[in-house]
Amino acid sequence: MRLKVLLVAHKWAVGLAILSSIIVSAPQIYFRIDHHSDGIYQGIELLPDSPWSARAREVQDGHSNFGAIYYKDGKDNPYLFQPLGSMVVAYTGQMFGLNINDTFLLARLLFTALVSLLIYAFVYSISRRKLVALSSAAILLLAESVLNGYGLLELFHGRSPDDFLRIARPVNPAMIYIFFFGFLGAFYKFYEKLDEYIDWKWGSLSVLFLGLNFYNYFYSWTYLFAFGGILGLSLLIRKKWPEALGVATVFVGALIVAISYILNLYQATLHPNYLEVGLRNGIIETHTPLFVGFTVVAILIAFLFWFPRENKRTYFFGLALLLVPFITMNQQILSGKVLQASHYHWFFHKPMAVIFGLLIVFYLLEKYSVWRNYHKVLAGAIIITSIGVGVFVQASSYKSGTNDGGAVAIERQKYGPVVDWLNKNATKEAVVFGNNEISHMVVIYTPLNVFYHRAGMFSLASTKERLLDIIFTFYRLRGVSAKESEKLFFTERDYLSANIYGMHYRELFGSYEAIPDEKIQEVAAGYKETLKTPSARWLSDVLKKYQVEYAVWDKKKDPSWGLDQYSFFEKTAEFGDLDIYRLVSNR
User: Cα–chain-centroid distance for residue 188?
Assistant: First the structure.
């Protein structure tokens, strides 16, 4: 009965949540309908080029530890990427007996709606204004891509500012926001009554949500602990001792929930490859402060001048959230290490700026406007515009012939028969050799592992030796000579930088191409050394070293590979331009 009352009281929030889910999932649904009748659809879904697809599949294959998502070896290593969000998505699909495609479709429908309701609930709790809460949810889910100069400019030129809505990506950011806003909403309910009594129900829920953030996303729990520190300090300064103790209890309780994660992180630091992989993940050693951004500063100033102070508890809660960027963007002043600080901006700083910017605007209009219905008109304009932007982004991205649009998804259907053959004939956990696109399809649509994956370098199983073996193998299959490599390696420096050093030089100097020349020369010298070994022997030894059992050759994209010339390959299937080989010497 109480649930029915809530649904009726907040029917517009429920309606927005449902509509957002439909907008987010519509391209995937339409793609199936559009291409089932013409026979094009071969089971390869309209999915963003995101590592989260493979991670959810890894969970469904029974490897929730995330020790080595793409490789056969290293499965028992400590994880570096938290698995909880992928586990929730994967297990939700398994609960209903769904394959990976339908799992992502269900996740888009279910978790988009949940995120919308959690954003609405949090904003409504701190403001008691339904229209502000609706506007916040609509912007953050459907119009987030135009909240910057580039996005607006693209939109004004009639181009999509993003490749599908960010919330449509498998797993994240939907799962990030579920645990993040789930904590903020529960914690505010606990916090707002602390001067009167301790609400153990909301307190316990806050502990659980905050603790689960450790297992889901590094940037969310660090952001929230910075927030808790600022809020607790403000209570201590104002001599609110019992309330400060109540806040501290929640955060200490979350640390207890996070014990397993903390132990895993400690074990990871002991791994001999930890420091090297950390650099590839974008860790930069610096004490230089970073600017938090004009928007964050502007909203903070507006907050200090115009946010209502009648409710001191809400005021200091909001102030703590808006001060967090000054810590998260500058913690390296003390720690000396910074890790992709832009993630804080995308997922937390910008959403908080949007929420409190809207609260301030609605408050000022309420205080100074003589027009009674201003709030309805403004909210209506924001919500309708956000819906329009969301529909436009989804429709334009679908029609696009680049990145993850419909044309790309149509091209990827050629991998459907290969995926079906591997699922029927290859043993589980077998390793497949293929190019970038083939490997990406294999880790999503089969329970198999791969010789190469562009995200594989971010796991502890990726030694530099392994990455060089991979790079050299592909160059050798292309037939690059020692003399050609001297020039080619400098021409393809961004490729070498990304595939050997990951995000290191991008984060350190601003681009992959900024890799020092001496590093290119070092790789070139290593490559020339491999040329002393005959091609057949080199390829056989490397594939055996990494336990490869199957190879898929795209003769159209990689005509120089010539896999049919090697005696240790046995062709077992052919689908158009795609040939599947079994390594007979590696049985």
Answer: 26
d(CA 56, CA 118): 23
What are the phi and psi torsion angles at 407 (to 5°)? Answer: -65, -40
Residue 252: CB atoms within 10 A of its CB come to 11
Confidence band for 151, pLDDT divided at 50, 70 and 90: confident
Which amino acid type is present at position 290? L
Q: What's the CA gap between 14 and 21, in Å, rounded?
A: 11
List the alpha helices (DSSP H) in 492-545: 493-501, 504-509, 517-530, 535-545
Cα–Cα distance measured from residue 438 to residue 366, given in angstroms and rounded to the nearest whole number: 57
Q: Which of 413, 386, 355, 25 is nearest to 188 (CA)?
A: 355
> Structure tokens of 371?
């027009």
**SS3 (DSSP) at 259:** helix
Average pLDDT over residues 127-153: 91
Q: 353 phi and psi, to 5 degrees?
A: -65, -40
Per DSSP, what are the bridge partners of residue 151? none
Distance CA 455, CA 312 (A): 47
Residues in a beta bridge with 569: 583
d(CA 554, CA 560): 10
Q: Which letter does DSSP use for residue 99 in this model? A: -
Cis omega (within 30 of 0) for bond into 48: no
CA distance 412 to 456: 21
CA pair distance 104, 144, nearest whole angstrom:
21
pLDDT digits (tens, 9 = 90+) for 518-564: 999 999 999 999 999 999 999 999 999 999 999 999 999 999 999 99
Q: List the beta bridge partners of residue 557.
A: none
For 184-212, the three-class secondary structure string (H helix, E strand, C coil) is HHHHHHHHCCCCCCCCHHHHHHHHHHHHH
Tell whether the torsion through CA atoms of 527, 464, 403 and 343 is positive or negative: negative
* Model pLDDT, residue 99: 92
Q: Which residues of 289-307 are buried (b: 16+ CB within 10 A; e: fewer)?
A: ebebbebbeebbebbeeeb
DSSP 447: S
C-alpha span between 87 and 89 (Å, rounded): 5
Beta bridge partners of 573: 580
Here the tokens at position 342 are 């832009």
The conformation of residue 577, written as its DSSP 8-state character, comes to T
At 291, list the tokens.
Answer: 């600017």
